[in-house]
Please model this.
Amino acid sequence: MKLKRLTLPLITWALALAGPLYSNASSAQSWPAKPVRIIVPYATGGVSDMLGRLLAPKFSDTFRQPFLVENRGGAGGIVGSEAASKAAPDGYTLLISGLASHVVAPALASTLPYDAVLDFTHIALIGGPPMVLVVNPSVPAQDLKELIALARARPGTLSYATAGSGSNGHLVGEQFKQLTGIGMTHIPYKGAGPAIADLIAGHVPVALPTLSTAATQIRAGKARPLAVSSAARLPDHPGIPTFLELGFPDLVAPSWFSLSGPARMPQDIVLRLNSEVRRIVQLPDIQERMRPEGIEAGQLDSQAFTAFVAAENKRWAPLVRAIRARAD
Model:
């Protein structure tokens, strides 16, 4: 009798502990049972918004529930990212994350409402466009070597435009300056569009936008590309050499966007979403949208992608602080 009296509370206690586990497993297996929101932490029209809207209908087709894009811009991606980090980790709130919100913002903020690695489940690397160094056709430099020589011959007279302080173009530009020892003044703009417009108009001689932003002007001959930050030459832009082949391996630095969610999401949901993202970005119709913009598709599993986010923070945070960048 004494054994029975001891055993019954133990069984009750064990079932109480196991209950949430069974419930979590059951809810994960039935996911999704209702619409899923994908937070884009920026206004409509940018690359992150485009990628979110490319993924959403494909997810809806596969998982047979609506996936709805919700734009929540503000503070360089912090507002929307914070909302995602504080949502329930049940798979019904996802986030288009990226370099700006999960690397630059944490390095800049004295206080941040989330930890860029620990407060998120990093699900999949979607991809992103590389940066391209372009010059106005009037600049007497036909290649990167000649631009470096020109900058050394005219110290302090060249300037370069980017999409803003703390943008990926700014980081690549400042690292390029450090590696070559040249002096170029950074001119931050409110977006890559105005930066390219001023390059074409001849107001700035050099710019470092994403290739997706500059592609039309490059094809029209209004901007001369000297180097791209992808790891290899791009099929749709085979004439643009990479920084890597020109002797700058540290400038393999494409911009990137990704799919994340709140920390502690069920692993089987993460695996399903990761597999689906990797499938979607290789579909012919998605490639047709991404390739002309120079967007390289990611193919990392969730564990490798989490390590990638941590490595990107380690790589860029010291430079962001050193150049006193700010989120625009």
User: Anything to note?
Assistant: The first strand starts at residue 36 and ends at 40. Residues 1-23 have pLDDT under 50 and may be disordered.
